[in-house]
Structure formats: structure tokens, C-alpha cells
# Entry
Amino acid sequence: MSGSKKDPFFVGYLSVPEGLKLFLIATVALLLGCFAALALTIGGTQDDPGDGAFRFDWGRQTLIGILEASPYPIVHVTKGTKRIPTGSTVLLSGNGKRGVQSRTTPLDGELVEISGVAIKRGNIEMLQLRGGRNGIKKVAGSVQMPSSKLLGRWRLSGEICDGKCFTGTMRPGRRLSHKACANLCLINGAPPIFVSSAPVNGTRFFLLVNSEGEALDNKFFHHVAQFISLEGTVEKRGNLHLLKADLSSLKRVP
Amino acid sequence: MGTVSNVLMFAEWWLYFGAAVAFYFLTVGIERIDENARGAYVFRPLLIPGVLLIWPLVLWRIAVLERNKPEGFGRYRPLRTAHGYVWLVLFFAIPAIFVTAMLLKQTWPADIPAVRLSPAEAVSQ
# Structure
């Protein structure tokens, strides 16, 4: 073995040798300082997660409205609650990372009763449905489907998010660290939301569909969580805005 | 095939090779390079997860120790020396990776306005 017999040797359960005290104090101080600086830097560079949240405090919401199953299930509310008033348009999702297309497709265009937990962020609302017929069932009556209004063709900058996490299930439910989660939600049928950096007709949130007005194909998923610009037609259906986007116009912004 | 598929396939094959190395190392190799392990079996399954991940290092160490079997502390000297270099590299690499990530991070395009390309009337439904 090399080294003098007088070399100090640290043993955890014994007193610190004189020769190592200064080194130990300096190391501990340096590490504490570095970790504090790192924590401040990481914390300070995080984005505001926004006001989106599960609204368990509202209690179970039971609404009646007309179901539009395609491209993504939405309900135009004809009989609302104090929290989600008549005239609202709500997105639908299942538990976990699942859409509800298998339950809503047979009821397309019907008057339905939906029940579940509300999720809300800004002016966008979603209902996470209860299981089976407790979550959605047809009710008697008929109501006219709300008319849609075309608002022109636009170039918007922003981010593609999954509608469930972004609306409030996850905090934060966006940006690059959330990409894999968002894609899982989208692949399983959660509605995609385009979050625009600038408002159109008073909203920054758009249900994102392809240029034909159909559900997104997988090619869009590569661009989820990046900051991009897109061109497409904006349409207002009920209280919800749709962006019919051209994938060929998609560009990554610096 | 996309980048993600390639990464997953690479990870899958890495683990297959790791499993093969773990099987060899924990049944034959460990007894050839470390006499203290002879007759001791219960701890061996605990090494499987580690070997799955660092199997190239395990193979390299088996090869080195098969060629030359230093006694006592000499067996660990190369690893302890390498540890110092790795520590030094990580000391610079981790902050460099962190700073690079911060510099490459996209910024929210708050200053880019929404641009109307055609009026509402011009769009046909």
C-alpha cells in the first residue's frame, strides 16, 4: 500500500480526522451551494402550468345534449348545470388515457345524457365519462345540431397537445417533457388540441383535425409538443373552435 | 421505420445480449475470475439487472481478468483509477448537457401573431 501511516482516513462512525475537517466542510458547503443553484435554475425556467384542473370540487356533472361523434366526440349541451351551462360544448374522454369513440359512435347525432367529472382550462371544458351506460346513454327527444360557422383560413403558431392532459389532468400537460404521454393519449383517442400563441375569435384553444375535417393521422404525432406554425381553416361548432390543419404547411418555429 | 422504433429495437437487442452474458457470467464466468464467489449462489440473481445494462463492461472485465489475475487489491486498482477519470468527465459533462439543453430549448412563440390568409366568406364548406 502506498501513503504514509499519518494519512488521515475517514470512517463514517468515528470522529472526523483533523486533516479532513476543512476538506469535508468545504465539500459540503460547495455541494449545498451547487444543488441550491441548480434547484433555483431548474425551478425558474419551468413554465407556468396554467389553471387547468380536474374539478372534483364541482361534484359529478350530469348534462344533456346533442352528441357529435366525429371527428372527436363532443356534446353540445342543451340542459346544463350551474358549472357547465346550457350552450357549452364539452369534449369527452374515458378514464385514463382513453377516448370514448366505441361508446359514442353508435349514438352520433342523438340526444344523450352524459355524466362524469369535469376538467376545465380557460374556455375549454371536458367531461371524463363514468363507465358504461352510467357515463353516456340516449335520452328521449330531438334537438337540432348547432350550426357551424367558418371563420376563414389562418396561419397560427403554437403547440399540439392532447386535450385531456392539457385541459387539466396533468400539470403541466404540455411541452417536450410531456410528449410521450400526450402521444399515448392521442393514439388512444383523446382529442388533440392546438394551443395558439395568439387568439382567433377570442380563443387560443382549437380542436385539431386534418384538412378534411377528420381525426388526425399518425403523421401529426411526430410534431406534438414542439412549437410549430400551421395553416388551416378555423370553424366554430357550437361553442368550440376547430382548426382543420394542412400537414404540408406545418413548420417548426425557432 | 421511425427513430423511436430503431431505438426500441436497439434496446431490445441490448437486453437480449445482456441476458446471454448474464447467464454465462453468473453460471460459469464469475467462478473463473473470482474465487470468493465459488459455492455462493443466492446473491447471483441480484446481479442480473446490472449485467443486463452493462454487459459490455462485464465481458471486458472477464477478458482482462482471464488474461491476468492480479491478487488482492491489485484486482480493483484499474477500476478505481477509471472511476477518477469518469468522475472528472461527468463533472464537466453534466453541466454542459444541462446548459446545452437550456440553450436549445424552444421558446413559446408569443410574438408571432395569428395571420388571416383568407376571409371567412371565401372558405367553402
